[in-house]
């Protein structure tokens, strides 16, 4: 087990910068989810941690050692792929033990580790089957089993649930979280699904255009988004953005949305919001009374997002 | 512009054909059976004629009787051929050459294809195309310069390769390696990238990834390539005809022609018998590996 540190990591493909200098500290035992729209560089970041992609610039450290030029097999990591990537000609047990067999572990040790992982993932009765005889969810379990038996420093998940149906996805999400609580291995998990990110993560890293927009706990991201992108990306239904201006009405600061709609700010917080051009209430923090001549919004200022 | 909808009540209404799907299918089947029968007859008649002729005595072959019927069946052609040392010599030469060529081909083209398909090195794509282009150069163009090269090589080094059966071990791979490499590139390319990434993370070297993941997974393609290499080397005619002349160095296709045609005398019975026996080994191999072969061919077809 180990912590993972990224320092100014850059990935350049010819002209394009896929990852533009990101800094990230992942503590030991932590479950960190990289989330963002497609093409934001999250998978590239994960693959750089795995060593499947070279780093154009910066440093990646696993357990305090710089691993920039260390080949994947010597980084002591395990990876779970979106399409499972099981070896089709091997049984479940052989799939799970492949890494250990390559490292010439004693047979008894291999067997006990495979048995333990199979029990943890509830696939004991499947160990003699080939991948093609398994369902999608079972395959994903085997892929996780292959990672677990290695007992690596870091687990890397690359959109592991994207190929599963909605119901199974929820189930496997719980499964993954359970496994993490049991083995406590540092985990980096990539997904484009914010629900996965919010439910699984100790901390979420929101990425966009190759940059980190915000790092924080799911709660922080939801209630205190640092940028407009994070505010719009996190939360379902999505956050509304309403242009507004601040007005001084009879000594009290008001937020004016339209000519007819304005509401006062609590004086204690007023100072924070000087010069703010936009308010962004979460839909579920709004109540409307449509029969009244104006819409009254009940919002607590802590739930607003303000952008300077 | 004004648009008007004209409804021509007198227009003939199209008759709706119910069940046309199954009718189309029936006709499609009839046509396919017709053409299949046609082509089967076309390709099976020569071997049938060979079989019929191989069972006749020389007298009966030259007699003006119905050529499609054997009036006095005899195995004398088979007995003569199989008891003559020459024919067995040709057969073994062919067998040895083919087996060794297949081995050489696989040892070269499988790692080459793996490298070209997976290790993205500078110029790998160009090299892959180059391999294929080599295959497009016909042996009928190559045999003259090759002959000159081997002659020059013999003059310089004193190592005489011409008129030795093992010269074919160098010549045949020029035909088999490019094609087999190309088949295997297509096959390896169809294996998902994550599979070798998983293997690399599991701690496999490139060589282990090839031997423990890629070769087992691409086995159908490998078998298709093997069969192809075997067929090419078994049936190759031009190179052995040019490069080998002594009777003890000949492979079967050339051996049959050169020893059984004496001047203008054709030993038809034995020629047909020899050809028939010569066609047997590939046939047997095909029969056993047909499923794999087809799987391999289609895999090659869908991939670039």
Question: What general form of chain B does the structure show?
Answer: flat
**CATH topology label of the largest domain in chain A:** Rossmann fold
CATH fold-level name of the largest domain in chain B: MetI-like fold
What count of structural domains of chain B? 2
Q: Identify the overall geometry of chain A.
A: elongated
Sheet-strand content of chain B, in percent, reads under 5%
Considering the protein shown, what is the CATH homologous superfamily of the largest domain in chain A? P-loop containing nucleotide triphosphate hydrolases
**Strand portion of chain A, in percent?**
25-35%
Class of secondary structure makeup of chain B: mainly alpha
- Gyration radius of chain A, to the nearest Å? 24 Å
Question: What's the gyration radius of chain B in Å?
Answer: 27 Å
Low-confidence stretches of chain A: 287-308
User: Structural class per helix/strand content of chain A?
Assistant: alpha/beta
Name of the CATH homologous superfamily of the largest domain in chain B: MetI-like
The termini of chain A sit apart by 41 Å
- The count of helical stretches of chain A stands at 9
Q: Which second-level CATH architecture of the largest domain in chain A applies?
A: 3-Layer(aba) Sandwich
